[in-house]
């Protein structure tokens, strides 16, 4: 029997029981894949992060991420949660560490401020995938219960990834966004056809200097009907907005804040920064706060 340190962390918020909850095991060495999957299923958060020690000089820790039904390569809010828990546990100072993930070895910046921490996650390689059109677009609109006229003109429906791909779906109205009642069975079926599990439906409000984006993210094919606040949706969205020249930005960077989770009463705020070279996005960072909802231990 070994005791494992178990945290429930609410990410992208400082208010407990809001934002996006993630499980974290900070001393996961010794757990099997089967045990990790069972723990993730038991906690029933959209993701649970498991932190393993490094076995070489390339990275400081190895983090694995599980939904209740699948292992996934990387997760934004669970990355924030994992490194927040680790920073608290080890009383870390402001520092940069590297973690090995399914999306590669990536930097994480731990910023200590006011006896607390803000976590900055550098995401993986930016990749622009297929445009969703034709019969797949028809099936997507049907699954989301929206009409073609609800979509923002000139916003292509496209698969974009910074480590874990999402379908970008821009719609005109926040009222429509908050009223969405997707058909999860149809979304899961479509995921198999388009080889992408997540759908990020968002609105853009350029008149609001503080909050540019409001969004909702659905990924029923991997056991997440709706994810409250998604780093790996808003990060790719930033790259998408720059790539398609849909927003104003300077030559070197584009920054914005996004709110997600309002419709399910778990709102949180994500800060996104896109690094730009030659008018194209080359790197995405997402950052946010976190708070410990509870801490416990599990013996296995």
TrEMBL record:
Belongs to the PhzF family. The keyword Isomerase applies. The keyword Acetylation does not apply. It comes from the Bacteria. The lineage of its organism: Bacteria, Bacillati, Bacillota, Clostridia, Eubacteriales. This is PhzF family isomerase. GO terms for cellular component: cytoplasm. The active site is at 47. GO terms for molecular function: isomerase activity. Pfam families: PhzC-PhzF. Keywords: Isomerase.
């Amino acid at each position: 029997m070994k005791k494992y340190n178990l945290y429930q962390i609410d990410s992208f918020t400082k208010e407990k029981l809001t934002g996006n909850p993630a499980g974290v095991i900070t001393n996961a060495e010794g757990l099997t894949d089967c045990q990790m999957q069972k723990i993730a299923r038991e906690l029933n958060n959209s993701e649970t992060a498991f932190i393993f020690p490094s076995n070489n000089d390339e990275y400081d820790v190895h983090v694995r991420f599980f939904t209740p039904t699948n292992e996934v390569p990387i997760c934004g809010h669970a990355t924030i949660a994992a490194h927040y828990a680790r920073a608290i546990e080890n009383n870390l100072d402001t520092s940069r560490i590297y973690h090995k993930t399914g999306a590669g070895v990536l930097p994480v910046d731990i910023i200590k401020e006011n006896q607390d921490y803000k976590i900055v996650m550098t995401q993986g390689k930016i990749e622009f995938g297929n445009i969703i059109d034709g019969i797949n677009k028809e099936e997507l609109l049907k699954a989301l219960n929206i009409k073609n006229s609800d979509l923002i003109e000139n916003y292509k429906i496209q698969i974009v990834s910074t480590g874990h791909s999402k379908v970008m779906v821009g719609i005109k109205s926040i009222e429509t966004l908050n009223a969405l009642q997707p058909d999860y069975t149809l979304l899961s079926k479509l995921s198999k056809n388009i080889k992408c599990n997540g759908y990020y439906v968002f609105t853009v409000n350029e008149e609001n200097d503080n909050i540019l984006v409001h969004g909702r993210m659905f990924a029923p094919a991997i056991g997440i009907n709706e994810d409250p606040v998604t780093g790996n949706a808003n990060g790719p969205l930033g790259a998408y907005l720059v790539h398609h020249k849909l927003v104003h930005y300077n030559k070197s960077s584009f920054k914005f804040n996004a709110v997600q989770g309002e419709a399910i009463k778990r709102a949180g705020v994500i800060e996104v920064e896109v690094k730009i070279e030659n008018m194209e996005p080359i790197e995405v960072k997402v950052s946010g706060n976190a708070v410990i909802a509870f801490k416990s231990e599990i013996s296995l």
